[in-house]
Amino acid sequence: MCANSDIIVVTKSTVPVGTNNQMKEWIQEKLQGRHMYHMISNREFLQEGSGIHDFFHGDRIVIGAETEEITQKVERLYSKLLIETFVADIRSAEMIKYASNAFLATKISFINEISNICEKVDVAFIVTDWECIRTYPLERYVQLMGEPILFDGRNCYTGKDVEKHRMNYYSVGRKSIRNRKVSTVY
């Protein structure tokens, strides 16, 4: 290996917890003490198709490092982005990414299940303001439900949007909108 100063190895991918430790052992074996090196876990939180935008406008930066000195070097790389930075040890940084992915999967599963339920009934209850709920297209509710009734406990949608899609809409602290006659079937 041709290096004339300390080496910083940064992993960006989602890897199982403990991978950086295994990589460190492998690198140690290859370098045979010839160079100082440092491991950094720096996971990306990017969506497919919007990676560049997400990089520059992310909601968090996670840095997992062994020393404060190395952490500061990596933080300086991001300093102009003005994004909140979280610093942890390497294993915790690896776990943060896994937990974030698991939470995202939970949110996606939740909205998919709401969609499945909407296919069987004509009422949808919104009890969270997660982005996947706020951005769920109203026309999808209309397609899935015969006489769509939307109870919006988080005020995710505007009256104008709901009226455009001819839904019955009930919200917290807002005027109800009745665009359709509700049938009662027993």
Structure description:
The protein has a 4-stranded mixed sheet, with helices on both faces. A 3-stranded parallel sheet has the order 5-6-7. The chain is of the alpha/beta class. It has helices at 19-31, 51-56, 68-78, 90-118, 131-134, 138-144, 159-164; strands at 7-11, 37-41, 61-65, 85-88, 123-126, 149-152, 168-171. The chain is built from 7 helices and 7 strands, in the order βαβαβαβαβααβαβ. It has 2 domains: 7-102, NAD(P)-binding Rossmann-like Domain (Rossmann fold); 119-171, no CATH class.
Outline of this structure?
The chain has seven helices and seven strands; from the N terminus they run βαβαβαβαβααβαβ.
How are the secondary structure elements laid out?
Layout: E1 7-11, H1 19-31, E2 37-41, H2 51-56, E3 61-65, H3 68-78, E4 85-88, H4 90-118, E5 123-126, H5 131-134, H6 138-144, E6 149-152, H7 159-164, E7 168-171
Parallel strand pairs: 1-2, 3-4, 5-6, 6-7
Antiparallel strand pairs: 2-3
Features of this protein?
7 helices; 7 strands; four-stranded mixed β-sheet; 186 residues; Rossmann fold; 2 domains; alpha/beta; disordered C terminus; 17% strand; single chain; 41% helix
